[in-house]
Amino acid sequence: MKINDNIDSLEKYKISYKKSIQSSENFWDEKAERLNWYKKWNKTKSSDFVKGEIEWFIGGEINASYNCLDRHIENGFGNEIAIIWEGNDPDHSRSFTYNELLKKVSEFANALKDLNVKKGDRVCLYMQMIPELAIAVLACARIGAVHSVVFGAFSSDSLRDRINDSKCKVLVTQDTGVRGEKQNIFMKKNADNAVKETPSINHVIVVRRTGEPVHMDNKKDIWWHEAISNVSSKCKPEKMSSEDPLFILYTSGSTGKPKGVMHTTGGYLVYASYTHEIVFDYKPGDIYWCTADLGWITGHSYIVYGPLSNRATTLMFEGVPNYPDYGRFWEIVDKHKVNQFYTAPTALRALMKEGNKWVNNKDLRSLRLLGTVGEPIKEPEWNWYSRIIGKNNCPIVDTWWQTETGGILITPIPNVTPTKPGSATFPFFGIEPVLLTDEGEEILGNNVSGLLAIKNSWPGQMRTIYGDHKRFIDVYFSKFPGYYFTGDGAKRDRDGYYWITGRVDDILCVSGHNIGTAEVEGAIGKANGVAEAAVVGYTHDVKGHAICAFVTLMTGLEPDDMIYNQILDSVTKEIGPHAKPDKIHFTPSLPKTRSGKIMRRILRKISEGDFENLGDITTLADPGIVKDIISSLR
Ligand code: WT7
What we know:
seven-stranded mixed β-sheet; 30 strands; binds 5'-O-[(S)-butoxy(hydroxy)phosphoryl]adenosine; Rossmann fold
């Protein structure tokens, strides 16, 4: 395994970047050598952005779990720590060496095989941040089953829909979960409710995490510890083609239906592995911690696949930043002597608000690098992060990417790229960002802004929306032919630095979670008495954006606490508590164009309290409505 590219100056970055674009295939051929392949590829890439057909390392054969485990052991590193797990309560941690992890992964892989899970079958993982989640991910990869991790805060309805969309054969969950003050998250109960309506699920495997009593169905349900009690601790990794699916991960879309983002094996792993090493300046022996949940892409690429393929020690945290107090993150950094720390701006804002006393009594000298992801970071929290956490001694990497991109696309190279607080700076190797006008013209030069798109493919790019390739083309390629469209707006400043300005479509980023307005509107619409709802985001000092719902009730109904609570309950049930609106305004009607499209632009202004600059409202079917809405708020 080749470690480090020796990019130690901006000059070298620029030369290397140029090479990565001009002879992209040679560049990626060389990077792909960092992994162990059963069979080398015979063609580096084939990509067609019109048909949405993307392939990398064609003809190659590889196994992701082998690359994350066995090969390190074969190289003599079996006793190094692969995962440090820190539980919700302090003084509750465990660690797993590469040897131990391989044994657990192999056992669970065999348990899945015993339940007749085969290469290509989908397995749904609905768990909190417990070690068995990482083990299950790698076990699926080992036998070529496609994992679909569903974030543990999703409701049973969301879980059901995701299972049905990709027809998962087995569901893995846990008895109950603990998270911060919450001591009883009913994972198995939610799973039970979901599987009432998921005909494809043959078995539910249940991890005993808390020991809380749960109902077990004799035919369907199996305890994890029983499933592995009689299996071999060796399991031969399946030889996968580069383009065999590795996982599906659902992300919000601008229609109510979530998109099953599908990633494949070879290209994804090359990209996750290479970006993890370069962007986090990962050196052997470092303790690396990404605070994300495995339910999101950040956890897939930068807790499991990137770090483990690089033989890192990766920390996995079950809890939350404010439990038992606001010093928990820094206590963990101190306790495990973390070197690289990667989190979301929303967490930083929440912690910054509580003052420095939670930080100052911790020893953070082990930290060498800080990272952020998920939304634009603003100057105050960037400075706080740099000064108070990094002691002015750690580069900050503000990494821009998406579930769809598989790995980081725009980022500083640590200790090389001069940073500007709030800017993700420059493209990573092999990535060609462009700014487009609404008509799809490339905007050249600097000091400009536009829609962010990517020219040409990169190995970590998603390959399709599971079961709906047409939607894949529609969402990402048809608006601007020849480009991958990100859905984000961006600015390129006079020095060529990229600043991401946020989504330009109907997706909100709330506490780092992407939530489609249509999904929330659909859930609100199911509450009794609701005629129509429109959802927008407004600026919130901790969450980044918070959700504001404008709701019209059926004629004759007056808003009251019951309706209010029913709306919140419906959102919790349909999506999950993270999507609950912070504000609900009951309004006589909604502003619509003549073609019936809700003008969210106006509602956005209103939700920010900006009644004066509503822009052009003459295209509304009934411009008078705006006044009615405003007066209904006052
Ligand atoms: C959207 C993707 C990629 C992992 C986390 C979210 C926003 C992400 C940044 C950043 C500004 C960012 C974008 C993007 N975003 N990173 N560094 N600066 N905005 O994954 O749920 O697929 O969300 O998050 O709007 O499109 P995701």
